[in-house]
Amino acid sequence: xxxxxxxxxxxxxxxxxxxxxxxxxxxxxxxxxxxxxxxxxxxxxxxxxxxxxxxxxxxxxxxxxxxxxxxxxxxxxxxxxxxxxxxxxxxxxxxxxxxxxxxxxxxxxxxxxxxxxxxxxxx
Length: 123
Known about the structure:
This protein has helices at 2-54, 57-66, 103-112. By secondary structure, it is mostly helical.
């Protein structure tokens, strides 16, 4: 009887451990689901606020003025017109005239280390 009692007690302890680990796993999952639920509730509140504004007169008036290009009685509409453009005048591009440099002047310029060859300087 004592051995059977120990075997039953061991089985009960193992079952209790299994149930406790299942409880921890389900508790963790419950916290995750509650966090998702709170996010969904906040989204629902935000959407209800947007629906309330979209169905209000203020949103209709705002859309009519800004996007619908509509005016109320008594308003003076102002329509900007494109400026009449004249014929554009072409801008001449300057032509750079280079003077040829003799080879000996170029080599002298390289060895003397001057800023530029003497004949390439502007008059």
